[in-house]
Each structure stands twice: as structure tokens, then as C-alpha cells.
Amino acid sequence: MKRQSSAIASRVMILGALMMALALSGCMRGVPSDKPPIHVNPNMDSQPKYKTQGSSAFFADGSAMRTPVAGTIARGSLIATPADSAYLLGKNGAGELIKSNPRKVTMDLLSRGQERYGIFCAPCHGAVGDGKGIVVLRDKGMLPPTNYHDDRMRALPDGHYFNVISNGIRNMPGYRHQIPVADRWAIVSYVRALQRSQNAKLQDIPENLRGGVK
Ligand code: HEC
Predict the structure, then answer these.
(1) How many CB atoms are located within 10 Å of the residue 192 CB?
(2) Which of 112, 120, 125 is the best mutation target for the ligand 1 pocket, counting ligand atoms within 8 Å of the beta carbon and taking the most?
(3) Does the predicted model carry a pTM greater than 0.70?
């Protein structure tokens, strides 16, 4: 009997403590207050931070807001002119694919393109771009990549190639995270060179070298 009554007493005490906690935490306050309610388990809910237009004792001018570092470009504001759009997206101001490479095609650009093509494209597309890369030869289940050497591929504008490298197409993944813009254009110029080399006529070869052609 004694045991039972002490159990009841301790339950009453727990209930009382709970009510007090509730009252303290503001749940039962019922009257408006300027102060934030007591937060029993704050976890990481409130963290020190600066809010927009807040003040700060750290900076000499007393403001938490700083002027962006010179040369800062806001996200989404990189493309300001049609030339930016051509270079960064391969599209003109009206959103159409551009016909030719905005980078000046030089021997250096082609060599860079050849090197990058060998790293990023040849494993699938093959060294000459016929779609017979080592990956496809070994993995019979893989969808064969497009052969670059037909009329449809030759007729496509440079901007299309840039777009395919950047964003992928159908089953091909995009490579914009791996290949910087400048290198993508270098690869485009090299793919164009491959297309010419695989579709060359005797007249394309300097006369003095034609004798060596088999
Ligand atoms: C992992 C293998 C793989 C790699 C690496 C790869 N491609 Fe492809 N590519 C494909 C496949 C597969 C297709 C065909 C996709 C389809 O038709 O579904 C394709 C299609 C294409 C096309 C045809 C687009 C069209 O208009 O039909 C172009 C151009 C192309 N790739 C360029 C490149 C270039 C340039 C690189 C290197 C930066 C590259 N690819 C790297 C697998 C690859």
C-alpha cells in the first residue's frame, strides 16, 4: 500500500515538472510577448549570422554588407553580349547554333584539340571518329557512337558539336564539367579536321606530295 502511494506521488511530481516546463517554454503563456519563447532543445536552430542590411562591429563602416570584389560576376550574368553567347553556348544572340568556331583555328588549337580528343572522345568515337573506339570494341552491349563521316554530320554547324560536347545528346553524356570551354572549341576544330581528312580528295594534297599517296 505504501509503495503504491509513493509511486503516485512521484507521477504527480513528474506531471508538475512537465507543466512548469511547458509554461516556461511559452506554450501556455497565452499573452503576446516581445521576447522569443524559451527554446528547450535549440540544437542548431539559431546560429550567429549576418542578415541582409544588418550591422557589424567587425568592419570599419559598421555594415555587414560588403561590396563584391572587383570583377565579380553574378550567377547567370556571364553572358552579356552575343559574342559571349557564341563562345560560351555555341549559339548566337537569337539562340541559333553558330556556324563556325569563335576561336581562331591555328596549328596550336588543332594540336590541343587532337590531344583532348584523344583523352575525352577517342575511347568511344575512335581515333579517326568512325565510332569504333576501344570501349565499343570491348563492350559489345554498348550503343555504337555516331560516325562523324557522313553528309549529315559534315553539314552540322560547329555550334552543334560544341553543344553535344557540353550537354551530351541522346545516349551520350555531356562533358562540360570535365572539359573547359576553350578546350571544347579546340576539340570541335579537331573533329572538323578529322572530317576533312577522312573525306579528302587527291586535289586536297599539295601537288608535290601526291606521288606518295597509295
Ligand atoms: C562514353 C562514350 C562517348 C564518349 C566519351 C563521347 N561520345 Fe560522343 N557519342 C557517344 C554515343 C553513344 C553517341 C550516339 C548517341 C545516340 O545516338 O544515342 C555519340 C554521339 C556523338 C555525336 C553525334 C551528334 C549527332 O548530331 O548525332 C557527336 C558530334 C559526338 N558524339 C561528339 C563527341 C565528342 C566531340 C566527344 C569528346 C568530347 C564525345 N562525343 C565523347 C558516345 C560517346
Answers:
(1) 19
(2) 125
(3) yes
